[in-house]
Amino acid sequence: MPITLQDITAAAARLEGIAVRTPLLTSPELDRRIGARVFLKAENLQHVGAFKFRGAYNRLVQLTQEERERGVVAFSSGNHAQGIAYAARLLGMKATIVMPTDAPTIKREGTEALGAAVRAYDRKTESREEIAAEIADYSGAVLVPAFDDVAVMAGQGTCGLELVQQLRERGWEPDLVLSPVGGGGLMSGVATAVRGLAPECRVVGVEPDAYNDHVQSAEQGARVRIDPQTATRCDSLMATQPGVLTWAVNSRLVDRFVSVSEDEVAQAVSFAFRYLKLVVEPGGAVGLAALLSGHIRPVPGATACAVLSGGNIDATTSADCLAQFPAP
Q1: How far apart are CA 169 and CA 150, in angstroms?
Q2: N or C terminus of the chain with fewer C-beta within 10 Å?
Q3: Number of Cβ atoms within 10 Å of the Cβ of 286
Q4: CA-closest candidate to residue 312, choices 99, 29, 16
Q5: Are 305 and 97 in contact (CB under 8 A)?
Q6: What number is the average pLDDT over the span 49-59?
Q7: Which stretches does DSSP call E strand in 88-135?
Q8: Average pLDDT for residues 160-183, to the nearest whole number?
């Protein structure tokens, strides 16, 4: 396996006192609807508003002094961008981020505010991978992938490690854990941590209907590249193929992958706002959406957990979700 529970505990030691130990929240209304004890890991309250800081810092803090002097480059629609930018600032490094022109304004502005240089590109006509590689070639900067990297995956896994630890502090064991899945970095880390600590726990990955490459890959038994024909609000989950390293983990440790519709995502965003008093972005709400919609039904009385992976949502998108589901 590319990563182990020991890799994640080592990452947790590096992140101690640096990353936020985000709270594990409950909602009586959610428990009533689902018929189970439901806990929500609020990574929208992490630095930069997303779990991505965990993996970014764990990767960057292990660079040599010579590598730090050359700086880093990454490509991202926003959350990995901000995670890299903040980690680089903490470590006194330069960072360049290749971002699509249609990235949410809140994510682009957040990345720039943290001191990173942003190189914009057109999703339809340019390759972010090629642009980032060119920048790395001429500047000597270290290229940091968004998900297919063992240090990044291990850093994201500290979210799952904390989740189980926090449950046990309250006297509970997890029966079901749901996580958003885009490229698979968070999913692979969470799955490794959860299954390592609680082997009997079911682990489920959730993605939007329009970008269901993990669902299709699980059906085919191999990595599938999709060609999405419709848009999604879930800008943070727009990977079109599972990563090589992440799929090596997720294909073995994740029990099931499901997808949710745009309406189900919007309802979850609105539910989080109304009942949890939380701002959650669409991609961060897919696990909650899977529970609310009934795509995943915990056994009555079970202990279920869902990761709310981010909270970087534009005002327009938030208003649209609330208007569509004023009484979620």
Answers
A1: 29
A2: N
A3: 32
A4: 99
A5: no
A6: 97
A7: 95-100, 117-121
A8: 98
Of all helices (H) and strands (E), which one includes residue 260?
strand 256-260
Residue keyed to tokens 């020991």? 6
Asked whether the beta carbons of 75 and 134 are under 8 A apart, the reply is: no
Instruction: Give me the helix-helix angle, 52-60 and 79-90, nearest 10°.
Output: 40
Cα separation of 33 and 91, whole Å?
45
Strand order across the beta sheet in which 37-42 lies: 24-25, 37-42, 303-308, 176-180, 202-208, 256-260
Lowest-pLDDT choice from 47-61, 123-137, 225-239, 251-265: 123-137
Cβ proximity of 52 and 75 under 8 Å = no
Q: State in Å, rounded, how far the first CA of the chain is from the last one.
A: 41
Residues 6+ apart with CB under 8 A from 318: 269, 273, 279
Residues 92-112 as b or e (16 or more Cβ within 10 Å = b): ebbbbbbbbeebbebbbebbb
- 307's CB contacts (< 8 A; 6+ apart) are 40, 41, 43, 51, 159, 160, 163, 177, 178, 179, 180, 186, 190, 284, 287
Yes or no: say if 153 and 121 are a contact pair by the CB < 8 Å rule: no
d(CA 187, CA 47): 19
